[in-house]
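OP here, attaching both records as promised.
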Amino acid sequence: MKYVDIPNIPAELIEWDIDKILEIENEFQLYPHEYTSHAVSDELNNYLQQYFAFDIAAKYQVIHTNIPRHIDYDRTEAYNYILYAGGNNVHTRFWIDNIMISSTNIKIKRWHKLNVDTEHDVVGITSKRVALTVSL
């Protein structure tokens, strides 16, 4: 995990109401009780585009419970911006050969980049964790 130098998002562009986010169609149906993915507004996507050198389709991601170890199947890296941490002691952990190589409590409202083609999990979730995500 690495923090990156992308400005904070203007608050008025973000949907802060989790229930309203969840009303948007879920684009990730594999584990809908644990993780959902929802399109952001065109206005927010267009605003974010200026900070990326490739075409983006930003999403809200909602993590409902702890996420077991996995490798993302459709992307290798992700830029994330956490809106709600999901608890006071949430950690994103990375693993190689069943050995934990890092554990990070990622700060809210800070852009960061994750290598999601490395096995990772999210633990300590006590409430919904909501982030904006941009995939590579």
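Record two, same layout:
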Amino acid sequence: MLGARNDLLFCYGTLCAETCWRATGAPTPETALPALLQGYRSFHIPASSSSGIAPDPQSSVPGLLITISPTGWDALDAQEGEHYQRSPVSVTCAQETLVVWTYLWRPHIKAVPLASHKEWASMLARHYFEQWHYLHPDSTLKQWENSLFTQCSPQGVDAIWVGVFNNTPVACARLRASDMGQRRDFSPWLAGMLTFPPLRNCGIGPQLVHIIEREALRQGYRKLYLWTHDRMNFYARQGFRACEQQVYLGEPTTVMVKSLHANAQ
């Protein structure tokens, strides 16, 4: 994408409100024209009155195109804070396509073991059930809930880690001693990696992968394995490489591995 116009901002959600501009101390916007951002969707940010946008080729986000003075950008950056990243996007305004700036939600998450927040187990089980029930069609939601309670270790291998933003669960993943019956010689595994909809494509997944890698290193492991049916490109971007092909749970499956290094902590 070519460089963005330095004077134009695509606003959506609460950023369109006049009270928002007053709070920034920025000069009053000189223009406000309707614009459309294709290939993105909007969503509500957990435990917040704000909204965010994320890539989605089937969706679009209406908003306003506003001219910002050079001093206005500093005030806006300060208001949006560390969890938003000013980024270039292509929008349509008055039948013209322009590359302008907008703010993308890029949260910094922390991770806590599920064992310390068992009140979240039913919600996590529901997300797992909705995502992967097709691999276990005879299972029930109650069985998934029981599995989380009975198989989850408080810490170490087989602990389930929950990614948290604003004290609200947004993702989860697991470090397992074994996650594929026919490859018990591989250990440990990154498993159950899931960012909850609609918060995907906001940078949460890579952070959680890194958290699991650090936990594996802390326990003395130097390799981390995973299997996936369709997320090879995502994991390749996180430094994993394919090491073999399998048929697992009736689906073509790629087993991937990553060498871990202490300086990655």
